[in-house]
Design goal:
Radius of gyration: 25 Å
Helix content: 40-55%
Shape: flat
Structural class: alpha/beta
Strand content: 5-15%
Length: 524
């Protein structure tokens, strides 16, 4: 992240920013970017994406089949389906944020297109699309579209944003962005009622009363409201400058988009109730269950030989059972037995329950490898089939730590609104935690998932998990997780236990109502 140090910013071609990298929150262009510019930019992006799909489809067909009358039809159908799936994935408002990572939209788009094209090829055998040809096309389309996505990110102008309110949270946002220079955001200044001594670095642009003039002068893409105590006045001034064509976001919205998390310090009861909003699209339990069952059954079938090998390795690692069973908290706070390959010595908890942590001395050599590659979690596919877990969701915690976590982490029990998962957004972003401070960090990612969960997000998390597992086999890329302790949690923003319990009860009732309205879950 770079920060401007001048008092004013002269509009330049760089200011013709905003593209589809920031939908829906950050879409839209500055005053200098006329609709004609936007149309041309969108047409170029569409043409490049279409070409990235068309080239590998034609290449595979030329290399694997004799051209005939039906080849043109096959090219048209295959290209159209993969192009439509890719554009939908890229434009999807819940996958567009930067958090899932570059290439995720391409992976999800190719996977969706592969499923759709497989179904179409069954209904239209004349397309001449065998399994091998489809997989080659999918690999080619993935390489070309992911490369295009990487190049688009590399050459995309930064989003220029203005912070209104130099409160503690506004300054925290600047510090968080400073730790992530890879994010395409450029802070052009801060608006604050003070004299500017709190801001420093030449970023102070004026007071809220001067906001209209500041916006018309600086031409920001985005305005972040970091202090809700002055938000009403700020919005009044922003309405007077609406012709400047900018977007407005609250602090938690910006964190959702840029970091893929919602800091617990930014969460209020009002935000939590937004999960139950009338227009919040629920993730169908039937869709989720079908996805879970399909993934678990196929996964167990594919990894069955690997399970036998791992079982032998665990048995030879020392005394103790091959499969380790442990009580965990599931949906609605109900307990169940989680299944894992044993990774610790037999007497790991002879002195009582302890949080697992990175480089835990109780872990065996085989267990260390299994934990770093997450292969110890494979038996939990059986928990998924039994309906106790989901493929994607918050990681289940042990009931022994429930009282501690409820007292230390506000809204921690909101994780029980959904089934726990084998993998999750917090796992691919953070990894192991071993205390309440780490649990707060994990909760910030779990809240993001609770708000944005849908099938495409689940597919994106699975895709990142597969990549993470692959890196675990290479020692140089084995990730070393460090717990980030947030010492700035303001106690005045921590909801009372009574409020938390009331909101959680309301949420559980709402989830039950949705399930009842959707009908009973399918019997498999």
């Amino acid at each position: 992240m770079s920060t401007s140090t001048t008092a004013a910013v002269t509009p330049s071609p760089v200011a013709e920013r905003a593209s589809t990298v920031y939908p829906p929150l950050f879409g839209g262009a500055g005053l200098l970017a006329t609709p004609r510019h936007l149309v041309r930019r969108e047409m170029l992006a569409t043409a490049l994406h279409f070409g990235a799909v068309l080239v590998p489809v034609i290449a595979v067909l030329l290399a694997t089949t004799v051209l005939g009358p039906g080849t043109l039809v096959t090219i048209i159908v295959a290209t159209s389906i993969w192009f439509a799936a890719g554009r939908r994935s890229y434009r999807n408002g819940r996958l567009a944020p930067l958090a899932p990572g570059v290439g995720t939209a391409s992976i999800v788009g190719v996977a969706t297109g592969l499923v759709a094209l497989s179904l179409v090829s069954v209904g239209l055998p004349g397309l001449d699309l065998g399994a091998g040809r489809l997989l080659l096309m999918a690999a080619g389309v993935l390489v070309t579209t992911a490369t295009l996505e990487v190049l688009a990110k590399k050459f995309e102008p930064s989003c220029r944003f203005l912070i209104v309110g130099a409160s503690g949270e506004g300054l925290n946002l600047l510090a968080d962005l400073a730790r992530r220079p890879d994010l395409p955001f450029d802070c052009i200044g801060m608006v604050d009622e003070g004299s500017g001594h709190r801001v420093g670095n030449g970023l102070h642009r004026g007071t809220t009363a001067e906001l209209t003039e500041i916006v018309l002068r600086e031409r920001p893409d985005l305005i972040v409201l970091a202090d809700w105590s002055t938000s009403s006045e700020a919005l009044r001034h922003l309405l007077e400058a609406a012709s400047a064509d900018f977007r407005v976001a609250g602090l938690h919205q910006f964190y959702e988009h840029a970091f893929g998390q919602i800091p617990v310090r930014c969460v209020s009861p009002i935000w939590f109730m937004s999960l139950l909003h009338l227009y919040q699209r629920p993730y169908s339990r039937i869709t989720k269950r079908i996805f879970d069952l399909a993934f678990a059954v196929i996964g167990l079938t594919v990894v069955a030989p690997l399970l036998l090998v791992l079982a032998v390795l665990v048995r030879r690692s020392g005394a103790g059972p091959i499969i380790f069973r442990q009580v965990r908290l599931g949906e609605g706070g109900r307990t169940y037995e989680i299944l894992k390959f044993r990774t610790m010595v037999a007497a790991a908890e002879m002195h009582g329950p302890l949080w697992a942590r990175e480089d835990d001395p109780r872990v065996t050599r085989v267990g260390s490898f299994l934990r770093k590659t997450r292969l110890d979690e494979l038996p939990q596919l059986w928990n998924v089939i039994r309906g106790e877990m989901s493929v994607v969701g918050p990681r289940p915690e042990r009931p022994e730590f429930l009282d501690l976590l409820r007292s230390e982490v506000p809204f921690w029990t909101s994780r029980h609104l959904v089934k726990p998962g084998i993998t999750g957004w917090a796992q691919v972003r953070l990894g192991y935690t071993s205390d309440a401070a780490g649990a707060i960090d994990k909760l910030s990612y779990d809240l993001y998932y609770l708000r944005h969960r849908n099938l495409l997000v689940d597919l994106a998390i699975v895709a990142r998990t597969v990549g993470f597992i692959g890196r675990g086999f290479v020692p140089h890329y084995r990730r070393r997780f460090r717990i980030r302790v947030d010492q700035s949690l303001p106690t005045e923003h921590v909801p009372s236990p009574q409020v938390e319990e009331a909101l959680l009860a309301t949420a559980l009732v709402s989830e039950a109502s949705r399930a009842r309205d959707a009908g009973p879950p399918p019997s498999f």
